[in-house]
């Protein structure tokens, strides 16, 4: 039983800035990992490197044991669409499309016909507390509702890994708790692994493990027992 996703010896430099100075990290099925650390410590660079968005200068990224950091750009972007889901801080839904079509979009990009994609995407609306909001456009949703739609969209392709960069960064505390509970619960339901960047310790505490990053290196590590 290997890791779903692993990074080994990840190094990324921007000029004289070492954004990642040799990071090792692994996540398994139904595992959830929070990445915490001060601003500029390399959290987003780590998440984007694991997600195949940034190529490391050194080290490897393995998805179920297969290297992805050396894939060509076309294969890598196809892999990201099929096997990864993404939730960002905000503003990543298409404003002109109703919620259910935003959720269906990753499936349509994979060639699933529109009606089937919408039907498959709809299964997430009830578990995420979004029933009745299928036809709303993002401008007609609250911040928490919009993030729940983004979670549904990330899960639509049944990804191996869900990546979330500050998914509650624009939400108040109560809504943050709701959203992170649904994110961790729904991701675990699908069997996917979750990698989440957050600066909020209460949000991180919903993950099974917390990685502390400082100056591009792991500075601490803790493990929680999920109730
Ligand atoms: N595209 C880039 N070009 C130059 N420097 C960058 C770039 N992306 C990140 N950095 C630098 O790398 C370091 C880590 O950045 P980042 O991973 O975004 O930190 P965090 O997400 O923890 O705030 C910072 O010093 C940042 O300025
Ligand atoms: Mg960041």
From TrEMBL:
GO terms for cellular component: plasma membrane. Keywords: ATP-binding, Nucleotide-binding, Transport. Residues 5-226 form the ABC transporter domain. InterPro entries: AAA+_ATPase, ABC_transporter-like_ATP-bd, ABC_transporter-like_CS, ABC_transpr_LolD-like, MacB-like_ATP-bd, P-loop_NTPase. It holds the Pfam family ABC_tran. It comes from the Bacteria. GO terms for molecular function: ATP binding; ATP hydrolysis activity; transmembrane transporter activity. This is ABC transporter ATP-binding protein. It comes from Streptomyces fuscichromogenes. The lineage of its organism: Bacteria, Bacillati, Actinomycetota, Actinomycetes, Kitasatosporales.
């Amino acid at each position: 039983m290997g890791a779903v996703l692993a990074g080994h010896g990840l190094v990324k430099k921007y000029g004289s800035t070492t954004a990642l100075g040799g990071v090792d990290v692994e996540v398994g099925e139904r595992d959830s990992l929070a990445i915490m650390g001060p601003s500029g410590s390399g959290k987003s660079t780590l998440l984007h490197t694991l997600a195949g968005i940034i190529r490391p200068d050194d080290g490897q990224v393995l998805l179920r044991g297969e290297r992805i950091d050396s894939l060509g750009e076309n294969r890598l972007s196809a892999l990201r669409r099929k096997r990864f889901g993404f939730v960002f801080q905000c503003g990543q839904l298409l404003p002109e499309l109703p919620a259910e079509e935003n959720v269906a979009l990753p499936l349509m990009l994979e060639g699933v016909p529109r009606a089937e994609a919408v039907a498959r995407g709809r299964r997430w609306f009830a578990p995420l507390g979004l029933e009745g909001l299928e036809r709303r456009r993002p401008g007609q949703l609250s911040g928490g509702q919009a993030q729940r739609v983004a979670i549904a969209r990330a899960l639509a392709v049944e990804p191996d890994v869900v990546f979330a960069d500050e998914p509650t960064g624009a939400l108040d505390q109560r809504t943050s708790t709701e959203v992170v509970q649904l994110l961790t619960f729904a991701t675990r339901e699908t069997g996917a692994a979750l990698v989440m960047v957050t600066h909020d310790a209460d949000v991180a505490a919903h993950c099974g493990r917390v990685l502390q990053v400082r100056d591009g290196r792991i500075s601490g590590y803790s493990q929680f027992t999920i109730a």
